[in-house]
Amino acid sequence: xQTDGCGQQPLQMEMxxxxxxxxxxxxxxxxxxxxxxxxxxxxxxxxxxxxxxxSAVKELVENSLDADSTSINVVVKxxxxxxxxxxxxxxxxxxxxxxxxxxxxxxxxxxxxxxLQSIKSMGFRGEALASMxxxxxxxxxxxxxxxxxGYRVTYRDGVMEHEPKACxxxxxxxxxxxxxxxxxxxxxxTLQNSADDYLKIVDLLSRFAIHHIxxxxxxxxxxxxxxxxxxxxxxxxxxxxxxxxxxxxxxNLMKIEASDNDPSSSVFEMAGFISNSNYVAKKxxxxxxxxxxxxxxxxxxxxxxxxxxxxxxxxSKPFIYMSIVLxxxxxxxxxxxxxxxxxxxxxxxxxEKIQLEVESKLRNSNEARTFQxxxxxxxxxSAIGSTKDSQLNSSVSGSKSQKIPVHKMVRTDxxxxxxxxxxxxxxxxxxxxxxxxxxxxxxxxxxQRRNPKETADLTSIQELISDIDSNCHSGLLDIVRxxxxxxxxxxxxxxxxxxxxxxxxxxxxLSKELMYQQVLRRxxxxxxxQLSDPxxxxxxxxxxxxxxxxxxxxxxxxxxxxxxxxxxTELLKQKAEMLDEYFCIHIDIHGNLSxxxxxxxxxxxxxxxxxxxxxxxxxxxxxxDEKNCxxxxxxxxxxxxxxxxxLLPNPTGDGVQFYRKRKPFGNPDDEENSTSNMEGDVxxxxxxxxxxxxxxxxxWAQRExxxxxxxxxxMRLFLKPPTSMATNGTFVQVILITLNQFLIFLAYLKA
Length: 751
Ligand code: ADP
Ligand code: MG
Known about the structure:
binds adenosine-5'-diphosphate; binds magnesium ion; 5-stranded mixed beta sheet; disordered N terminus; alpha+beta; 23 strands
């Protein structure tokens, strides 16, 4: 731990010594190991705990919260490098404790290791204040209850610089850090150049302020009259969010709750607020507290982002505030030196449950909204054949004129028992055509507002989408929307639970269909995946053709293949403009494929399948008929993006055989291939191609991750399963009688 992340300073010290020794002839003897000077150790550790000014502020504010303060004020000068001052009205520090206050490992919060299991305070390592004295000048002013005056004392390198001086003081403690990193030139330099440290501090205080709503927070620049964060204690979380993040955020939030109390799966309670689909932002804001600790949890954040990415218009990211409470013994708080991350018992289950809840909130809010829109905008009866112009007119004028007073919108929807949501709903334009299709409608209406000219309202697309809707199997829809993903039963089938039933679902078929549907829904509104190396179409098509006839006899036909490749390339170059505009498939004038569409966010297709896809575009698309053409292209994309089996066999189980190196026995050429086997005695393990194996492991693990965290959440939101799926083996109900039988069934599947 002392060499890891020790910051730039220690590194620099090492380099300097090396330079000095560079002139001395190289000595081969091992260097002598010696004990580091105490002050060096402390400074290294300090650099780890206090990485930036904002980490110091976090530690100080947490100390103030631990001291039961109700008011915490922060003043910052020069991004925190010149001055950080945190004043609170907490219980103060006793006079007798001042001499050891800033020594390492002095704390009032923990005595035995076991206490960690039930620790309620934020601090416990007794390192923060000590660290600050090793990298800055610390002054503490404090007064405890019942005292007539307070004390002030300054610290350096863990010790008091003088006896505490009596002084006038107001209730609580003020801690001042001056000249942070004064003795760490490199770090100071990097930080001086970055302008955003103050912003980071403001961001931190904002987060604390919306969680600890019974505490007044303020944060200002030194000398500034106005505070950049200013929160007043309140009993309403939403009020706190409004005062810190603004009306535009608070207006678009929905309350969310989830919990579980089943020790065999998970035990937790979550409450918070999440943004609805009206909220627009470029960056995700995720404020997460776990057992009162401000922490990060990348897995949870990604899981939620996936759900939003599929729902919100392009580039819009959610605002999330969540507080999760678990039994203290289920949380390991001691996994990160700055306590920024924690690890949880049954983290996967908890994340999945929360993800589901977010999803259903979003869906309900969207459905409620569509309903709302129908209420306030009685529909002129128009059918699918309505012209582009009339649609545009109605939607554009709709968005301008429909300003419904908020009070009239409250509780018009009896379907939503909560009702309260509606005070935040805004009426959005919506063309009559799309009204029936839930989420779709909302997304399309958003698109229309953003870019009415470009709206993809080609009749053929609308027809294809309504084909999907009318062909949807309601029973399967219910399963897809409300199932719980249990895991992969084998390479192709996922095991799902729906009510009391278990199902096996073919993820290849499902993903193919979902991708197809999403292409139609996102038609002409794709984000792009940029290929790092543009791929020449002729080569791709040649590859695919060669793959197609694996019969070596036919290899003589290369000339013919080249001809086909050339013709197809020409054809696709002619269609390039349309492919680009509607499907984000970009082919440049030289016939290189350089861009592909994002169909589901956070998911890129298996690039090994590009050749097949390009060939399919060239061969299978009927370019004459608009509807057929769009359908075929969408289907080709669907096949390409489907979560099919990776080309490398699954390395678990028997699949591992594939990764054994096929070494011809006794072959003299052997040496070249097996330089690692110097000893001559061949160990079984060494025969495995580890590089390929680990590549395969990564690919398969990624696929599984995508299935669980991208495919299933998106399916719940968007998939309209076609009736054919009920009979073509995509869904198979598992008749489960005993666990034993189930296990036998699994074994049977694997065989
Ligand atoms: P930790 O918080 O891990 O105990 P610190 O170095 O942050 O370690 O603080 C050391 C001790 O100083 C705390 O345990 C606490 O008793 C005391 N302390 C620090 N800041 C304050 C404060 N603002 N008010 C009261 N006591 C404080
Ligand atoms: Mg502390």
